[in-house]
Known about the structure:
The complex is a heterodimer.
Chain A: E1 8-19, E2 22-33, E3 37-41, H1 48-56, E4 63-68, E5 71-72, H2 78-83, E6 86-89, H3 101-109, H4 116-129, H5 131-135, H6 146-158, E7 164-168, H7 176-191, E8 195-199, H8 203-209, E9 212-217, E10 220-226, H9 227-232, H10 234-241
Helix pairs in contact in A: 3-6
Chain B: H1 2-9, H2 12-43, H3 50-68, H4 71-94, H5 102-124, E1 138-141, E2 144-147, H6 148-170, H7 172-182, H8 184-189, H9 194-216, H10 226-241, H11 246-266, H12 269-286
Helix pairs in contact in B: 2-6, 2-9, 2-10, 2-11, 3-4, 3-5, 3-9, 3-10, 4-9, 6-7, 7-9, 10-11, 10-12, 11-12
Amino acid sequence: MSDTPPQPLITVDDIHTYYGKSHILNGVSLEVGTGEVVGLLGRNGVGKSTTLKTIMGLVRPSRGRTLLEGCAITDFPAHRIARLGIGYVPEDRRIFRLLTVMENLRTGLDRRAVTEARKKELLDKVYAFFPMLAERRNQAGGTLSGGEQQMLAIARAMMLEPKIILLDEPTEGLMPRMVSQIRQIIDALHRDGVAILLVEQNVPLTLDASRRVYIMEKGAVRHHALASQLRVNDAVIHQYLGV
Amino acid sequence: MAIDQLLQAIPLDQLLIQTVNGIVAGMILALVASGLTLIFGIMDVVNFAHGELFMLGAYVGVIVLTATGNFWLALVVATLVIALLGAGIHVIALRPLLGRDPLTTILATFGISLVLQNYALWQFGPVARKIQEPFSGYFTLFYLDYPWYRLVIALLSAAIIGALWLFLKFGTYGIWIRATTQDRVMAQAMGIPVPQVLTAVFAIGAGMAAASGVLFGPLVGVNHAMGVDWVLKAFIVVVVGGMGNLGGSIAASIFISLLESYASIWVSPAQAVIFSFVVLILTLLFRPTGLFVPTPK
């Protein structure tokens, strides 16, 4: 396909994933290019979150491969995948509730490869993005509001200096003001050259933020198009998502 | 009238002596129990081999002390050797059980405890060994000559527990450990090597058990079954203090030890243990999450 970049950052190649006996992913294949924002749409329970978890190494596929810059990472433990440059922002945010905001950030920041100067740079950057986190740096993560926790979850993933961030429904349950803030963050990350694989229920936001979009149904990718095409042709959206 | 009689029946000096005794015993117990509660709170592993790590620590202490004559060196070497042994036990016996029913870890650690206990019996024989205290000096507590060494153990135990707390609170690895406790999956997704963190936690807990074994060695004989009594008490403390709650375990250690000390004014020390069990049973009946934790909402 001409709109697929020649050097993909992430390649998901025909993965099959089971939870016990239920077949959740039934041959999912997709690609994300370097610095590209890609949307992953689909109704509830079609396997979007499982796809992200499988890329992250949190769920093992029974078949298929996942590649990062052409190297197979299918069998790598999750912590190695994270260190290789994949940030993960799960659907339920999973903030370390008893850790302070600063400690939450330090889980990703305290790596041997990072110099003190670089640490300060990274912290300054997220504090510029999210001034609220700077104010609350000594507050326990569990005391933040839902929107603030979402900001913290994204900031925490940024601490890994990722090449790509897997964003799972970042706007779910947020106030409109927070949603537009998330939208700006996606743009800012994109300008920084960070690729994003965005799982969302919010179709307009996804089409607006992404370059390409995959649509999933029953554990497999059914449709793949440029976001600009889908913006003018909503028959496809209507067919798969019913909106 | 009745109160007067009661006060006469409890001489103040005995009460004070038993308070000191209770706090000293409580601090040593706290050191054993904090290793146990650390391993439980972070790994969900009920470590039935904890008493044997305590006992083996004491034996390593005996060996090093005999060879070098240096008590403090013996303390450090025993801690390190048993921490390494703990890491080995974790990698071989517990890591493969990760993600399985927690009951399997009880069986595994119980098996390890039997192996270690019988190894000690075979290797060192049934006769108790003695660890010579590093210094012998007394101060006068009423009519008693009270050994300085006992106070020093209590202070050292407090220092070791304090160091553990600082490490957990401020160190990078401490943050890794706390993050792993709260959400193992997310910790991995943040690049924290969770299996290695768990091994390290088990090693730290084992090292703390060994340190308490050496410190306590001079007060009791070192033999292959010495761990059994202590681990039983440590389990009571961990349950009463709230499973996995470090501060609660320390409070419960002192509480239980004071209780036993006071009880032994009237009854023999062996009977005083009954009071601990009464507290345990009452705790399980009325406050199963532990005495020293806030009421869950």
